[in-house]
Specification:
The chain has about 200 residues and is mainly alpha-helical. It has one domain. The chain is built from 5 helices and no strands. The model has no long low-confidence stretch (mean pLDDT about 85).
Length: about 200
């Protein structure tokens, strides 16, 4: 009998050995599957971490946007405050001058009008009316003071002069009162809690 050699890819039943290439082929498929599972697992974790980082980044971006808007809102409030405070200071300065000197020249009054012209956009009617009344009464006070200089129309110790002096006194009293209450009237516009 002739012994026949088993093919390379078959199991030799007599010796109990298998060809090395068969073993390698048999192990290679599960090894590739294990590597594929490992790569998929790594990608899953990588994608999960990337998603978490994206969420954190989106969260941080939205937080930064909120802070930017908050800073922008604060800047607008500060600008509004500065404009209102400038008008308050101008008004206080004019009231103080009139209360101290009993008059204001027309150039200073014109400058006051120009410097407070934007008040209608920054304040309610209460302050706008106050500023208009201040301008009107300043003109009345100046006119009354000028008329008192004309001794022919308002002679010393005359009833007309006494009435004109009373008018000037009443206007001066108004300016003093307004100066004393100015901070109260402007408080709701200059208090940062109300901006």
């Amino acid at each position: 009998m002739r012994k026949t050699k088993p093919p390379n890819d078959e199991f030799n039943f007599k010796t109990g050995q298998m060809n090395f290439s068969n073993v390698l082929n048999g192990l290679l498929t599960p090894l590739i599957a294990i590597i594929a599972v490992y790569i998929a697992f790594q990608q899953y974790h990588s994608n999960k971490k990337q998603g978490e980082l994206k969420l954190k980044l989106d969260s941080n971006n939205s937080e930064l946007e909120r802070k930017r808007l908050s800073l922008e809102e604060y800047r607008v409030k500060l600008d509004l405050y500065n404009k209102r405070f400038r008008i308050f200071e101008e008004t206080k300065k004019v009231l103080h001058k009139i209360a101290q000197e009993g008059h204001i020249n027309l150039i200073e009054l014109r400058d006051f009008r120009f410097s407070t012209n934007e008040s209608k956009f920054l304040f309610d009617d209460e302050i706008c009316q106050l500023l208009e009344e201040l301008k009107t009464k300043a003109i009345e006070l100046n006119q009354a003071g000028e008329k008192l200089k004309d001794l022919s129309q308002y002679p010393v110790d005359s009833q007309q002069r006494a009435e004109k002096i009373g008018e000037c006194s009443g206007l001066n009293s108004w300016f003093n009162t307004e100066y004393d209450h100015l901070e109260i009237k402007f408080d709701k516009y200059l208090n940062f809690k109300n901006l």
